Amino acid sequence: MNVVCIGAGYVGSVTAAAFAEWGHHTTVVDIDPRKIELMNAGQSPIYEPGLETLIARHAGTRLFASTAYDGIRDADVVFIAVGTPSTPSGGADTTYVAAAARRIGEHLNGERFTVIVNKSTVPVGTADLVASLVEEASGLQEGTHFAVASNPEFLREGFAVLDVLGPDRIVVGTGHDRTRSVLRQLYERLLSAAPATVYFETDVRTAELIKYASNAFLAMKISYVNEMARLCEAVGANALELAHGMGLDSRIGGKFLQVSSGWSGSCFPKDTQELALLGRHYDCELSLVEAAIASNERMHRYCIDKLRRRLKTLNGKRVGILGLTFKPDTDDARVTQAAAMIRALLEFGSQVRVHDPQGMEMFRRYYPELSVRYCGKAEETAHGADALLLLTHWEEYRSLDWPGMHAAMRQPYILDTRNFLHPPALQALGFRLEGLGVERSAFG
Ligand code: UDX
Q1: Catalytic: 303?
Q2: Same domain, 161 and 228
Q3: Predicted pLDDT of residue 439
Q4: Backbone angles phi, psi at 130, to 5 degrees
Q5: Low-confidence ranges of the chain (pLDDT < 70)
Q6: How far is Cα 289 from Cα 93, in angstroms, rounded to an integer?
Q7: Final residue of a structural domain among 202, 227, 261
Q8: Among positive and negative, which fits the CA dihedral 119, 124, 125, 129?
Q9: pTM for the structure as a whole
Q10: 444 lies in a domain?
Q11: What are the start-end ranges of the E strands in 316-412?
Q12: How far away, in angstroms, is 21 Cα from ligand 1 center?
């Protein structure tokens, strides 16, 4: 089939590479010529494990990239995978989706039936909006010349290639039989290669809502375990073992129960806000979602308060930050708990040195107002430091020159918000290491 994918971001570039892998003639369209050049040269426009190999395998044979929309004319399926950032009111901004819809409409010729698919996470009702914009721009009719479906993407950054090639489920929302059969055909290769994947068809609005409801549920799960971690610290229980014990119940499941300084990233904060807004708009109380958001912000503050209690005051203290991205194995530092926490440290009068293996460039770009010192080597964050705050559990942080860092610090204190470092080894070096929710046990 001929597939066009609008957007070469975290969703679009992986989706397009996967469709090429399944044998479809795929064209990525993006306004950024740098991304297009990279993809045509067989390189990845983003940092994502395994993506470059996939792109290199198909670039120039089945995978093409362009800044022009010409490919729409011959497309069987067009994916909209552009960004939907948050508006100041917390809702998802569909400006880019609307612009893509208009451009698609201008290039449809009505000679072949084209399925337009919303892959970006878009507010409920966006499929209708896209359909009317395409009708307006093309003069064609939805249902006859084209159809708009919803096919939300559930990939996790850092595991995007694995998630796209073998997802738990594919959710397809459409009311048209013809669209259903086009999309079944599109995913045929995936379903035979990944037989455990469930293919689920529903109506458009339900599909749109499944994405929000799933992300909010996962965010609630993490907020809940983080609240439990705070309670563990208060009563002297162990949050790691608590999460393990809870997860042994198959109805709860052991995933997404890792304590952290809070969830962030380009999906959870945006999607929970949008869902909460939708609830308010329809006068439908979503108190659990609202509580998960508030609880998450409290978790960021809780970590800074813990650091403040340990150092007595943060004013004039030097704090080294390990990890700026919202999680490891990504360069994504657009929406990250690190920003909120560094901002608080600076307001308290601390001097902050930061390191991240992949995310420093993006962090600097998105948070130019945060005056921190960027360190090329993780070890440099320890120079003269009163504390190290580990925010992102990058694997390489396990094997830093910890003896050297101990020698370089003014006070050898580490707050490991991911309970990730190995306490006995670091304690043997003379560090005072604390985690979250494990106060009186493993972390001593
Ligand atoms: C998420 C969803 O998982 C994915 O299905 C959706 O398509 C997009 O949003 P992603 O944003 O890539 O994916 O990150 P994810 O791995 O889900 O982590 C989100 C945040 O939760 C990160 O800050 C992560 O560190 C945190 N997290 C995750 C925890 O604090 N504890 C956990 O147990 C799991």
Answers
A1: no
A2: no
A3: 72
A4: -60, -45
A5: 440-444
A6: 20
A7: 202
A8: negative
A9: 0.94
A10: no
A11: 318-322, 351-355, 373-374, 387-390
A12: 26
Q: Which one is catalytic: 267, 284, 303, 375?
A: 267
Ligand 1 atom closest to the Cα of residue 256 is: 33
pLDDT at position 87, please? 87
Helices 126-138 & 204-235, crossing angle to 10 degrees? 140
Rounded Cα–Cα distance for residues 231 and 182 (Å): 51
* pLDDT computed for residue 217 by the predictor: 98
- Domain of 58, CATH number, reads 3.40.50.720
**Domain of 329, in residue numbers:** 216-434
Q: How far is the CA of 237 from the centre of ligand 1 (A)?
A: 25
Ligand 1, atom 17, residue with closest C-alpha: 156
Distance, CA of 283 to chain centre: 29
Together in a domain, 148 and 234: no
pLDDT at 356: 98
Using a 10 angstrom Cβ sphere, with 0-12 exposed, 13-18 middle and 19 or more buried, the burial of residue 68 is: exposed
Statement to judge: residues 195 and 77 lie in one domain: yes
Pocket test for ligand 1, best of 326, 331, 392 (most atoms within 8 A of CB): 326
One-letter amino acid at 118 equals N
Residue 86: the pLDDT is 86
The distance between the two most distant Cα atoms of the chain, rounded to a whole number of Å, is: 73
For the segment 10-29, what is each residue's pLDDT rounded down to a tens digit?
999 999 999 999 999 999 99
List C-alpha distances in Å: 73 to 34, 70, 111, 112, 113.
Answer: 24, 6, 9, 8, 10
Does ligand 1 have an atom closer than 6 angstroms to the CB of 328? Answer: no
Q: Which two tokens stand for residue 348?
A: 């308290």
Q: How many distinct structural domains can be found in the chain?
A: 2
Q: Give, as one character, the DSSP assignment of residue 59.
A: B
Pocket of ligand 1, candidates 327, 393, 417, 436: which has the most ligand atoms within 8 Å of its Cβ, to mutate?
327
Residue with tokens 């600076």: 346
Q: Match 């929309």 to its residue by tokens.
A: 69
Map tokens 């995007």 to a residue: 160
**Strand 114-118 to strand 146-150: parallel, antiparallel, or no bridges (unpaired)?**
parallel
